[in-house]
Amino acid sequence: MMRPAERHPISDFCDAYGLLLRRNAILLGVDDNALKRLVDAAVLIRLRQGSYCLRSVYLAADEAERHRLLCRAVMQQYAEHVALSHASSCLMLDGPDFGLELANAHLTHFSGNGRRNSRITHHQGECNVLDLTRRFGFWLTVPARAVLEVACTDGTEPALVQANHFLHTGATTREELAAHAARADRWPDSIGHHVVLLLADKRIESVGETRCDYLFFTTGLPRPVPQYEVRHPDGTVAARVDFAWPAAKVIVEFDGREKYHRFRQEGESIAQMVEREKRREDLIRELTGWTVIRLVWSDLELPERTAARIRRAMRAPSVA
């Protein structure tokens, strides 16, 4: 993480992420009164008891990065008997932040009771060698377990987002998810595990696409084919679409900002990409004669209306 252009001398006492523990500050001769003055002067921000961050670093970070800062500070304060888990493990392993509660860092203790204090939610859980990974100098629960933990604390849809992300990036597999779920069948609030296992699909590439697929499931629509290939008459692939119902001759594409960044070509403006995407959609309609429906973030907040729109397209006569 880059330091601010104008550095306060206290920056020399902070680590590479702009973090400073009270215990380290005391050893370096910076007492509690000095720390309080630095907070009052808007040089430091107090993350939690005994840990601080450069205010410039904290204000430049988004919500997910602020949670990672909190996690790094917490893990410097704790010993080897805990692991970052749940949403905290997912974020530290570069999972998306959709639907996650980020106010507190999540720790799983290898012994002891779950509780909540000073921006930490403590969990008790049995962990074996297959449950843990070592990163950044501390323990985290592995992606497959973290997905199931999120299902218990944040809900099925956020857990599915994590599952598809880690499957798509190759950080876990369906077999690993199933194995961890078998060992977690008696966890509190684990009822969402079976839905995550049912829907998880490495072909689904983004948060928006995962949320679309979850909408299809919860509104009773038939399961679509993700990443369906539309082909030219000679058999070569003309385009891949997010979802298709070949029997109903309906395609759904999700338009999210992430897609524009992911598929934007070097040197291409957003306007140029939109025009290229329009030509792509025209080609898809020309080759298939199918109905193409585009969904945006606001459509996901109105699931029944969005599902009704797709059902109408499925009942409409084909023009092919």
Structure, described:
The protein is an alpha+beta fold. It folds into 3 domains: 9-60, no CATH class; 63-199, no CATH class; 207-315, Endonuclease, Chain A, CATH 3.40.960.10. It has 14 helices and 13 strands. The protein has helices at residues 22-27, 32-40, 55-60, 63-77, 86-92, 143-153, 156-169, 174-183, 193-199, 207-218, 257-263, 270-288, 297-300, 303-315, and strands at 19-21, 44-48, 51-54, 82-84, 105-109, 115-117, 120-124, 132-135, 138-141, 225-231, 237-245, 250-254, 291-295. It has a 4-stranded mixed β-sheet with strand order 4-5-7-6. It has a 4-stranded mixed β-sheet with strand order 10-11-12-13. A 3-stranded antiparallel β-sheet has the order 1-3-2. Helix 6 (143-153) packs antiparallel against helix 7. The longest helix has 19 residues, at 270-288. The chain is globular, with a radius of gyration of 24 Å.
Helix-strand sequence: EHHEEHHEHEEEEEHHHHHEEEHHEHH
Average residue pLDDT: 92
> What radius of gyration results from the CA coordinates?
24 Å
Tally of alpha and pi helices:
14
- Helix vs. strand class: alpha+beta
Low-confidence stretches: 1-5
Q: What share of residues is helical?
A: 40-55%
Which range does the strand content fall in? 15-25%
End-to-end separation:
54 Å
**Sheet having the most strands:** 4 strands, mixed
Order of strands in the sheet with the most strands?
Answer: 4-5-7-6
Tally of distinct domains = 3
The strand count comes to 13
- Morphology: globular
